[in-house]
Request: fold
Amino acid sequence: MSQDNYSTKNRQWQQLTERNRYQIEALKKAQHTTAEIAEQIGVSKRTIERELKAGTVTQLTTQYEFVQVYCADVGQKIHESKASNKGRALKIGYNHKLVEKIEEYIAEKKYSPDAALAEIKKNGEAEVTICTSTLYHYIHNGLFLKIGDKDLVRHTDSTGKQRQKTRKVALNNTKGRSIEERSEEVLERIEEGHWEMDTVVGKGKTCLLVMTERTTNLELIFKLPAKKQKYVVAVINKLERKLGATKFREIFKTITCDNGCENLDQKGIEQSILSKKQRTTVYYAHPYSAYERGSNEVANVLIRRFVPKGTDIGKLTDKEVLFIQYWMNNYPRRKHKYKSSREISSYYNMVA
Reply:
């Protein structure tokens, strides 16, 4: 049986292929009529008429005359362009109120897309019809007027990156208590009272001391005149005076920090100024292992939304620092089912 003797009928909805277009171009050059081309290709005459209209271009001959010629390449490009624009309509549709609220939370209130959608849904401010991944897709494709990639908390995707193996001992802190000695309760975030501590620096000497509670992500932020041990110890002393020795030991069971020079006065941080007892236990993470203080690192990323690198922290007022702390403690978090640290922490009213 030859290829001309087939029993399968051509389906009406089948589109022309690139091969069909080159066949049309060859048949047209051979001066076949539209009806003849349609019969040989196996489609309707109207399909060929539409294709010829779409793919016909003006060309200049060697005799300097302009002629209308069907070009298969042009027809294929037009087809591919139309195909790329197909698909479902945007889920956000004409929901202008939702668009306004998303832009408000992300651009003005500095929320992440996930937190923005959760807060809008929680407050009933607009009908939420899209998921977080869809919203990220819209932002990456520039579908919003007031927000873009620059407004996202994290700009880069770290997926696939591998941690490099580094030494396990800090050369400037060989006597410090290693994070390897922490109990499972601290590691698994079973109870409140275990903190991570770090500093955020900017232009000049002034910096921010950031303390993050590992279970609830409760944040405490203090302005330090300089990145020095005595100022870190002074903050811890001030907290103990405010809370009292017993309450301080209850709230600040452990503190995990890096091996920065400002954190190396282990005795000063641990020794109570109100009693002879040890007020907390300090652990030091391994060098180049910021992931061991993951809560702290996430907090620092959020702080950078208000204090970009290169900011003169010395020019921040106490009121501005307190606002950042307040914002972070009221920020909805997915890990807490979109509740804030203020809502779930039993320590908030005592320390914040």
The two ends are 86 Å apart (CA to CA).
